[in-house]
Amino acid sequence: MRVEMDAMTMAAVEFAEKNQRRFVEELKELLRIPSVSTDPERAGDVRRAAEFVAAELKRIGMQHVRLVETITSERPGGHPLVVADWLEAEGAPTVLCYGHYDVQPAEPLDEWKSPPFEPTERDGNIYARGAVDDKGQMWMHVKALESLFAAGGGKLPVNVRVVVEGEEEVGGEGIAAYVREHGEELKADVALVSDTEMFAADLPTLCVGLRGMIYTEIEARGARTDLHSGMYGGAAPNPFVALAQVIVQLKDAEGKILIPGFYDKVATPTDAELKAWKALPFDEEHYRETEVGSVSLTGEAGYSVLERTWARPTLDVHGMPGGFTGAGAKTVIPAKAVAKVSMRLVPDMTPAESFAQYKAYVERLCPKGIVLEVRMIHSGDPIVVSTDNEYVRAATDAMHTVFGKETVFVRGGGSIPIVGDFVRELKIPTVMMGFGLPDDNLHAPNEKFHLANFYRGIESIVRFLSGVGA
Amino acid sequence: MRVEMDAMTMAAVEFAEKNQRRFVEELKELLRIPSVSTDPERAGDVRRAAEFVAAELKRIGMQHVRLVETITSERPGGHPLVVADWLEAEGAPTVLCYGHYDVQPAEPLDEWKSPPFEPTERDGNIYARGAVDDKGQMWMHVKALESLFAAGGGKLPVNVRVVVEGEEEVGGEGIAAYVREHGEELKADVALVSDTEMFAADLPTLCVGLRGMIYTEIEARGARTDLHSGMYGGAAPNPFVALAQVIVQLKDAEGKILIPGFYDKVATPTDAELKAWKALPFDEEHYRETEVGSVSLTGEAGYSVLERTWARPTLDVHGMPGGFTGAGAKTVIPAKAVAKVSMRLVPDMTPAESFAQYKAYVERLCPKGIVLEVRMIHSGDPIVVSTDNEYVRAATDAMHTVFGKETVFVRGGGSIPIVGDFVRELKIPTVMMGFGLPDDNLHAPNEKFHLANFYRGIESIVRFLSGVGA
Questions:
Q1: Looking at B345, B363, B380, which one is the last position of a domain?
Q2: Considering the entire predicted model, what is its pTM?
Q3: Domain holding A374: CATH number?
């Protein structure tokens, strides 16, 4: 069995190598579909991306390929899940492969060197919105499965379920409900998620913790209608000034969040974890210069950058719509303005409790003449996953073969809400094996995916799936 | 002479009354031109509005009607002045009629009950962007002149110069340069400006003071590119948080401006002026409820609303472009964000000194990890005009005849920068006789002009011009 499996793995790896260019061209086709899930006008494109993925899953040999609608009366804009399985590897474990086909908005468009939805290869990278997050990484799963099907004469070495969602960038409510209500259709022994990054180029990485989040809006309303600042300046409340007064009371100049009780449930990483982080090849000055590019870094005093971005809660303002934002001058006191504010949460905080603390606090801060409304846009749980199981060993073995190096265990600062649902609802471990790079410009202009990592990712997944089935 | 003049005045008033509907229909044609001076894409429309005004001035009998270009290499977006004169009233004084044909942007469009550039009559008002500010009021001048030409057989009772600018809403640099460099072409004894409002319906009003302003942008730059708040939150500086930290240090929660030295040159109104303001029919609670519509008013403690809006400097934030302002969620830490901040200035402050104080102070406030840039967008001087001259008496006499009431003297909170230039460069008094109403929604959605005031304004101007010439 072992010999036969090794031969099949080798054949799959060879198949993947021979078909690299075709895999890239297919990915480009998918990247051309502007499946921006937060934009209601893109709903048709989002569906088109789902259909594209479903058609390919069917073509390579997956079974029961279907779109599962997530639209409900409360969520008229829900985007479909792509669900499929292949369960004929009797006695073998079942791997649930997860990815998402939706992408972030591409704005600001004028900062892209090539158009976000016209994938372009430069210097061994493919540039496009979604290249690494997550279309490119999800496509690694599909292409690893195709390679294994090809090598196995239409059979896989493990049982596989696939679920690909279209709402990861907008909170993933649709898949969360599906996991809660139809968990049996995703029944598996382990989940494989490739939506994270490597700690450094050539350094195989497993992500074992993720921050959660709450994404909110604070709307400040003053006058009934927009007013002329000459005529009313000095008497009418200004919603932007009011929001500034609220924001500075949310986080102090040293990065400490001022919401009462906010830090109460924050768990400190284990000594072993903190020690391992210290051993990682991390140069703060290099990080500041090459990744952030600001004159200095910010954040809570007394914590390293890795602690601040992996194990500490944070608060950011993403945009402040309202008033006049065009070129030139308009002397308006706007009737209302909004601050888009999110907080990253860490174990053992919960979105519900953190939002309640935040909302109550903001409402108490309400400046004179202003009416505030605090809204939750979406949320995700923070999680830490176990590293002590055979699936993590299969993943580290696979990557050791491909990269020739030991895997490092890191956490991610971002949220992948579904991982929490897998842990909570399906009660299965998750292997977060991602192949992005720190400079891949996730959620930013000029997002890219390093093609060498796309190929190594496919090979790693081929070997991981074979390893789990062995 | 006096009898002949009275007969001619009566004939002009009759002509204006008989032609009211035509005057309104012509005004609608002008209002349909979206001459938004701050929008580079509207440059063609702005020019079309200038040509419309010039053609009408020519048709009614004005001489030397011409467009004066204001474009220079530093100001490639300059809009033309419309200049004309009629100087055959030998021995009579010369009145310089000023107005502007440009308008504010119409945004937010979804709050207009009828489209901003499709003038619509409702309840005795005409609704459109520019209806009262200033196309409707400028058109009163043109129609008063037409009525006097008609009554006088092609002659006017006074010498008249007309200058109509297209950059009032963007700082008026073009006309300021023209006044400085070609003042002799505007040589007059008095300027007539109708770009202000009446203190209350039916209460004839002259404006005798205006606040100045500086309109600025503060740009805050943090990271080199937009970053994912999950990955970098806790390490990367947030430009919106930084701007909030700056804004709260510009103005305290009680409305006091915190810029060092800012109040040093503020002149207190005379006791007589303060006493007259107290006698005006002003109900603060009614003003809050009907004009502002906020839960309470704001502003410096210890000053009345009229003092705060007429005689005290103020600071407002008009918009904060940058980051993600669309619907839904985008977890971006934007590389940069901007705050559009303006300050209203009162006598004896100067824009140059106030801006220097502000810029130096803001630069000192620069938050960690952030680079700030402070830019002046435009400015205007504060002014107080004399009330003790024959032209003010001609204006109060004219309005007494039309309204049957004594004129009140008020100040305006807004800026009409050109009035300062007339005082400084041409050394002539200005009569600010405006016919807007407090609820005309200047610079806001659903701007309107009360048609009864349009007609009374024309008659008042006919009588004023006759009175100056008598």
A1: B380
A2: 0.81
A3: 3.30.70.360
